Q: What sequence folds into this?
């Protein structure tokens, strides 16, 4: 099973279910999913396992978990998995947000250090 594709579809489903007014196609779901899986966070690994387990327990086709989820499949998944599925989806979203914010802060800090190091040093004016 391709964890990145599963994470992508989980993100697409969660964004659509929480923010019906938002169009999930506005987000880089492939990049976010790849980021979530590649960060190596055990929370994401656990969330993917929980979603996959709930998918199978709901009697859904294992191959269809990596394709856009139909409304019927999503409803069946939630009926079968309940709050644990919602929590697993939120764990994936939260991990992306946490690491993305941390990475953004690191980038800003790194850029500031680089900029300061590149500035010429000025001597104080003699009075």
A:
């Amino acid at each position: 099973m391709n964890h990145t594709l599963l994470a992508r579809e989980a993100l697409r489903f969660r964004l659509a279910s929480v923010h019906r007014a938002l169009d999930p196609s506005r987000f880089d779901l492939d990049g976010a999913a790849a980021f979530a899986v590649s960060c190596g966070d055990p929370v994401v690994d656990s969330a993917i396992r929980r979603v996959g387990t709930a998918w199978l327990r709901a009697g859904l086709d294992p191959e269809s978990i990596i394709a856009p989820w139909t409304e019927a499949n999503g409803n069946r998944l939630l009926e079968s998995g309940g709050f644990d599925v919602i929590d697993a989806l939120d764990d994936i979203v939260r991990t992306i947000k946490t690491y993305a914010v941390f990475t953004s802060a690191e980038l800003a800090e790194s850029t500031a250090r680089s900029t300061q190091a590149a500035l010429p040093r000025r001597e104080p004016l003699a009075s």
Observations:
- The chain has one domain: 3-115.
- Helices lie at 3-18, 29-38, 42-57, 71-118.
